[in-house]
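1st attempt posting a full record on here, be nice pls
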Amino acid sequence: MSLDKTALRKEVFKRRKIAFDAGNSLPAVHRLLRLLEPHRGKPVAGYMPMRSELDPLVAMADLAVDAPVGVPVIISNGKPLIFHRWSLEAQMVDGPFGARVPAEGIEMIPEVVIVPLVAFDRFGGRLGYGGGFYDRTLEGLRSRGPVYAVGYAWAAQEVENVPLEPTDQPLDALVTESETLVFTR
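the predicted structure (as tokens):
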């Protein structure tokens, strides 16, 4: 299955780059904020966009008015992510794998997680970068209580079926620049 996933990632990265270059992300920000309105006031984790990922920072700044917002920090391979508090004013430094992290490492535990991804399908499946970080993290967070996981991606990242493994954690919803999908379990 890893060969299938590798080929799929390569194909979708190309499509994601084309969507990124077209640059129409504002509708996605509005959709994300509408979807998360019932969760306003809950701690949220977003992410610092890298390369051609859809940028959640405007939505994160809006949500930070009412609750703590964090970004992921990689501790080491094979471990779940932790989240450090973020704000627009936070001093950011380079973390592992090139992701920016807050210099002041104040840990927080999210109840809502905005999840970056490589590919998604209409069943709540997501294909990540291959490290399993978000799957381990969501599994751990969900073992403590409800966690709302929202994929955030360009519409061009949709595939017919994501090849899933038993450890893959499903999304509760997905937002693109053109639509919002809510998955029922």
